[in-house]
Write the structure tokens for this entry.
Amino acid sequence: MTRALLAGALLLAAPLAAQPAPMIDYAAERAVISRFQDADQRLQDVGWRLARGNAGFCPKVVASVGLQLQDMASYGAPEIARKALGLTGDFAVQTAARGSPAALAQGVTRNREIIRLERLDPNAWPAGKAMDWQRLLWAHDHVEAMLAEQGSITIGFADGAEVQLRPVAVCASRFELMGEGDMAVADGSRVVIGIDFPAFAYPEEDLFAALVAHELAHNVLGHDAWLDTHGRSRRHVRRTEREADRLMPWLLANAGYDPAAAARFWDRWGRKHDSGWLMLRNHDGWDERVEFVTAELPLIAELMAREGRADWSRHFRREIDPAGGLMPDARP
């Protein structure tokens, strides 16, 4: 749940007593926050579309409204962030994923201040030190619990307005943006992508969606738990990576994206960035990844034409046995 380190003022040390307080450029601070929120919006839009489109096939689903919150305590300088956004409290809307119940409702807009999540005011929780993400985790857990418990949640805003949101089922995975770094990882319950990952520069949404689909595939296929049980040997990791690669076009197809974008992603990303990974050999080479992904496309096309969906829970060939070890295969 980390948030971007704000430029300039948020990184300054406390002024000496004899020095005047530094001037804060709040417009610049807002611009830095806005850049982070734009990237987060893109991730949430794509993540929602993938999680919603594949809900019928995921082994675990949750009720969701597509709402992402922000907490000023998670910024490097909460007071500066609060003033830059014009807030009196700490909690506000971060994003509402495109097409989600939150986005379709009236008034769930970026930076709108929140004072109530059903019967709870998250601002009442004690805040930790700067960059503390714990309250934000509690708030998202609370929203999810309310949706599961009563089938809706009422959001109260600081201006006195409120909106009631009713959820829909999505694959059980959260999507989080790191404020720095160029890594993309999945831990079983979250897809976490660094704001500097090269795919953020790709203008084509289906190519960015392919990256998110790869990480989501790890979560819906239970790879993290399987590796914890069977060990993270190079062979095991390589099989789970191959399986996630091969599921990418299935997830894309069910979300309405071009499934062939999975192959295009590995071709584009791999030609520039894959050389270091080849030395590790816990992933296939980028050209092999293109080959494995492309091999899935005919079956996906057949299923989409015949059934209107690509049911990977029934038709996808696994590389690992969820209840055992590796599936028989001549390939390493």
About this structure: The two ends are 36 Å apart (CA to CA). Residues 1-17 have pLDDT under 50 and may be disordered. Residues 8-170 form one domain.
